[in-house]
Design brief:
The chain is an alpha+beta fold and 536 residues long. 30% of the residues lie in helices and 29% in strands. The protein starts with a strand and ends with a helix.
Length: 536
């Protein structure tokens, strides 16, 4: 029997599989398509997603296919710069230790992640296997599957082979049209945004000078559009559909070249595909049904204006992976998995609202409204955007005296020297629950608190002037900037890199450690057994 079966072999399912496999869990990944998907979908990812792939042991495979990007300009009706969302607002690296954003060509990303999966010691990776139904038993789920192949017509047809797989838990990562979600009787809530866009994906020819091309969102009321790199060798345009457009005409190459107009040099780009997508904002309210859980587009959709659709799915995978491991290893009760939806649903919904805010700015087609919008930006008074999302519920320090400035935000990763080696901290010091402190946290902890950390396997990342006696040297001041900017001296970071809690003074560490113990004890097998017995 597998520990976890994953239905859907796209980047979210692949990420979850790599994370679980790296933690020595037995996994299966089953996707109905016999081959990896050969066309791009998502085009951008952020620093957090890259850190997650780093933690999954996939960064060496993924990194060659990422194009760093430090600008994201938005232009108004007259092609004047409204705002650059990233330029001049960043440290050399983001808090995760990587650049704020990257463009990627999704087929190569999926190939790279698949290379990690097929080399795992206990992974059953099957493509061309369709889950037709499932049944839940007391301690596992049975997946009923059939094999599919690609017919000459390009359609998927059954080969006649069937199989069954048993797993203690199943995670459905099977996309926006999730068959697993439908079989489970779950729905998505429509949050109200809908817009049709023509997506044109192309490949640079040998003659192309890539330096002539850039990333940009063009909020021109006559036809909003955008352009962006897809990794190193590909480029994408998106054009909003306007009244009077004929869809058949939009899907002709000559129409795409005409729409690109002066954005391209003739002969630089070879069109690979044209497709009309409907961008929507949707979210599910139940991400778990017994031993079946959901991640990625199977539970949330958002406009692609911030590149957060895939990133949100990758966050789902990281949040779920460490909790599944704790449950499978017996360190936590199954109830811990309820915190997955508790944390992820409001977090993703915040990202959807933020993405919709920018999508609506882009989708303004009334010239008067566009002029008013542009005037507000020119005056330095743009429409207020929702705050950048952070975790607002779940496994967090919620005491009144907690350092709320960092609670639920991403914790830091910097370049360090440790034990004679130089690199990013996650690679050198380790991953999991981590207490990061200026100086030696142990000098400010009681014996009881030290015992809690040791018993729980919490990693101590102690910053000092020399890399001896277990200390790390903050080579480029990444941690110094983080602590100074947040008025903090130590933070306790979860395995998914979000801050459980922090302190403004190291003398507050004991209370933080005891709060951590109290929160996690709620999900211990013993505590849950006591709760069950008391309810009888």
């Amino acid at each position: 029997m597998l520990d976890v079966a994953i239905v859907g072999g796209g980047p979210v399912g692949e990420t979850l599989g790599a994370l679980l496999g790296r933690a020595n869990r037995s996994i299966g990944i089953y996707d109905r398509w016999p081959t990896l998907y050969a066309l791009p979908r998502a085009g951008g990812i952020d620093h957090e997603a890259v850190r997650i792939w780093q933690s999954a042991g996939a960064i060496e495979s993924v990194w060659p296919h990422l194009r760093p990007n430090l600008v994201y300009p938005w232009y108004g009706a007259q092609r004047q710069l409204l705002v650059d969302l990233w330029r001049d607002k960043l440290p050399p690296r983001e808090v995760s230790g990587w650049n704020i954003g990257y463009q990627m060509y999704q087929p190569r990303l999926e190939d790279a992640l698949n290379d990690v999966l097929v080399n795992l010691p206990d992974a059953d990776v099957r493509r061309g296997w369709d889950v037709t139904s499932f049944s839940e038993e007391d301690d596992h789920i049975v997946l009923h599957m059939r094999e599919l192949q690609i017919a000459a017509s390009g359609e998927l047809v059954p080969t006649g082979k069937t199989d069954e797989v048993r797993a203690r838990y199943v995670v459905a990562c099977d996309g926006a049209n999730s068959a697993m979600r439908e079989q489970a009787g779950l729905k998505l809530d429509d949050l109200g945004f809908e817009s049709d866009w023509l997506v044109v994906d192309s490949e640079f020819t040998d003659q192309a000078d890539r330096s002539r091309y850039s990333v940009g969102q063009y909020c021109e009321p006559q036809r909003p559009h955008m352009s962006t790199f897809l990794g190193l060798d590909h480029y994408r345009f998106e054009f909003m559909l306007m009244p009077g457009d004929e869809r058949d005409e939009l899907l002709k190459p000559e129409t795409a070249y005409a729409l690109m107009g002066d954005r391209i040099v003739p002969g630089d780009l070879r069109i690979m595909r044209q497709v009309i997508y409907t961008f929507r904002s949707m979210i599910g309210r139940q991400w778990r049904k017994g031993r079946l859980l959901f991640a990625g587009d199977a539970m949330h959709l958002m406009p692609p204006k911030l590149g957060q659709g895939l990133c949100s799915g990758v966050r789902d995978a990281k949040n779920l992976a460490w909790k599944l491991c704790d449950v499978l290893d017996g360190r936590a009760h199954d109830k811990l998995l309820d915190t997955y939806g508790e944390e992820r649903i409001p977090h993703v919904e915040d990202f959807i609202h933020l993405s919709v805010y920018y999508a609506q700015l882009s989708c303004t087609t009334d010239p008067v409204e566009a002029a008013e919008r542009d005037a507000l930006f020119a005056a330095g008074k743009p429409p207020a955007a929702p705050p950048f999302p952070y975790l607002r519920s779940g496994l967090l320090d919620r005491r009144d005296e907690a350092l709320h400035k960092v609670v639920g935000r991403l914790g830091p990763q910097g370049l360090v020297r440790y034990d004679g080696r130089t690199g990013l901290a996650d690679d050198l010091v380790g991953q999991g629950w981590t207490l990061i402190s200026r100086g030696d946290a142990r000098l400010h902890l009681s014996e009881a608190a030290c015992a809690i950390l040791e018993r729980s396997g919490v990693i101590l990342l102690r910053l000092g002037e020399h890399d001896d006696a277990g200390f790390c040297v903050d080579i480029e001041g990444d941690y110094q900037r983080y602590f100074a900017g947040n008025d903090a001296h130590a933070v306790l970071v979860r395995p998914d890199f979000y801050v459980f809690g922090g302190v403004t003074d190291l003398d507050q560490l004991d209370a933080l450690v005891h709060e951590y113990e109290a929160v996690m004890a709620l999900y211990s097998p013993d505590q849950q057994q006591r709760i069950l017995e008391s309810s009888k």
